[in-house]
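Narrative progress, year one. The postdoctoral researcher (J.K.) led the effort to move from monomer predictions toward full complexes, under supervision of the PI. The following entry was the first complex the group processed end to end, covering 840 residues in total.
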Amino acid sequence: MEKISKNLDENIKYLKDIFKNDSTFIVRPLETKRGQRCCAFFCDGMVSTPVVNDSVIKPITLWDEKIEIGSELADLKTKILHANDIKIGKTMEDIFGGVLYGDTVVLTEGTDMALVINTKGFTIRSISEPGSEKIVTGPKEGFTEGIMQCTTLIRRRLRTEKLKFTFMPLGTVSKTTCCVCYIDGIADENVVNELKKRLKKVDIDGILNSNYIEEMITDRKGAPMDLVGKTERPDVVVARLLEGRVALIVDGTPVVLTMPYIFMEQFQSPEDYYANPFFSSFSRLIRIMGFFVAISALPVYMSLITYHPEMLPSPLLFSISAARDNVPLPTVLEAFALLISFDILREAGKRTPDVIGQTMSIVGALILGQAAVEARFVSAPMIIVVAVSGITGLMLPNMRALITFTRLTLMILASFMGLYGYIFGLLWLFAYIASTDSFGVPIIGKISGEDSFIRVSWSRMKRSGRFLGGENED
Amino acid sequence: MRIKILFLLPFLLILSGCYDYRETDSMAIVSGLHVTKGTEQRYKLTFEIVGTKADDRSMKAKITGMEGDTVAQAIDNATAVSGKKLYFGHAQVLAIDSELAKEGIGDILDYFSRQNDMRLTMNVIISEGMSGEELFKSEEGDIRSFVLADMLKANEERAITPNIELYSFIADSFERGKDSCLPIVNMEENGNINLSSLAVFKKAQLVGNLNEDDTKYLMLLENIGERGGFILEREGGSPVSFEIRSRKADIKPRLENGKILCDIDLKAQFGVLELTGDDSVIVRHKLEEMENELGKYVSYELGQFVDNLKQTDLLGIERQLIRHNPQLEDFLAESFPKLYEEARFNISLDLDIIDSGRTLRKLGKS
């Protein structure tokens, strides 16, 4: 590690060389009224200019007292600078880390250490409700891209000294700040240590989103589903921390990871805990049903009409048979073609602005669909089944990957083997889920009667911390 | 290892998959079929095929007839003509001509019991004096097989004729110890279809008929149907209609001193359906009187019925005897017909009239 020189000019030259061709890097030489030379370094745009002017430059330039040799840094820190957070930097790496993350670094003549002053002032999106996790009743706050704002949102809800935040930089180039968050005494220490161990092994240039880390710390690489919980809601993170889980906040992304992960989490919504338990239980059961409809509607329909038509009620078979009259594609290809068309429309809708998106949905879904049926390109029942499958798939946005992968696999199996293939596929899915762990905890979890398929009233639920990890203290 | 499995999977699917794959639009969906003796070949099969047109979404039936020396050949011939494979998975009715049935229908049943796509729950009926074309011809444009299936269900519910499905008829026809029966369909003079009597089978051969009343008592003893009706012709009074509310018949045959003795216990509850004549009101003492009369009437009629039934074992007496005395199986194989002719039936009834509908009084009487 590069050491800081006692010669200020050498340091300035060194830093200028390092930040050569970077116009945002500002070097501001300073001098006290008694002639003590200093220099402030910061990145334009990352710092708050008023704070730098008022808390760093102004106090130093107006200082009119003698500074004893050897106590420059101490005097600056304790008497001169007006900042709430000042650290001592001993190496050039400390200077780089501070300057690049919105701090102002002050070096003085004759000292081989630096003051790293917190003057962060970059713009962060204000707190708003996360679009993918909207609820009707309950808090509307969501995480933002600023890590400190995220920790604040959690801290505000958990005013206990046992709430711990451990920061660590990740990414060899990006040096992204990550924060491991847990409640001491409730979270399982093994999970905390395992997470830290896995984070230390992360070897990547840059981290732009928490998903980068998720894929590197997950238990089963290449799994077609999430093995780490994800949320943009602070209330959800707090609830999970209280259950004994560990959260990982990554700077620059509002998506916070929680672990260990339980499969049933995907069917839970924060609103389940804010609404009437009967309604919450009903909604949860609908979501579970929606998952099965999303993965099963197409393979079961394909199986029934191509392998087991005797299982359909007679009027339904006649109706389907009439609808398929003169349709050129066989049922299996028709299903794949329509499903891919649906995904194209969905993908296109995601990328287009709202106004055009609505028009496109109408053209795509209504006009194209109807025209395709009338032109006998596809049959109407198939459009209905694909639409049902697609819409129920959108009901659980966090399970998109699993639904898409499972649906396609089941469709392939059903197209070759009918309902047998579908059942084999479903058994594989259950076996896969049952054999998968997340940080040492089986993701199938503990199916309790209190908060899994249904949610009972809060008064009948046990203390949440007993779910995982240590016991809550009474 | 995983790579090997992934490599094998496509072959596994392609080589072993797609068995029995078929598209709905490439099948001719048969809703009903009729089997009779052919003029040139042994069998003539008439198929009612449901066709649907997407344009007006209406279902239309097409009737196709084809002959063959075997049932399979007739079906193959029909497939060759229609261009689409005949699909029997949704067939509702299998009608067999009575004249053919008199010669035995074991071969036909053998074919239908072997085919994978043949619906074993399709209803089997005997057509009397009707060709397949006449049976399936519909002037209203409805699918006649569906109408017949609905009629059979309704008739069974009202305890007029039982609804016999193919698998149970096959079981009764070829298993020892019980004779079987099938509803008879014939056409009335006004062109309406009538389903009210039964054809009796011994070893898949038609041997006789049961009239409407006998059919009713057979269903009563077999616990078939939900709402059978009885008309009680009262001595010195006007007839009263009753409807069965619930009933449980128990037939317990036994071999005693080389003779078959059969206890028939019938517990039934009736409701008054219709009062005729001058009876103004059902009062308690009249109700008991009526119950006694009903008991006598049913007891007499049942006695007559079981005595007349001794030519055939529709009640499964032999099967019950063998079930309770397996050691007698060989003995009964030879001697059952003679023993059954001399069998004595002991009928015990427990009948209750439990309701009289919405009113006790007859309208217009005080």
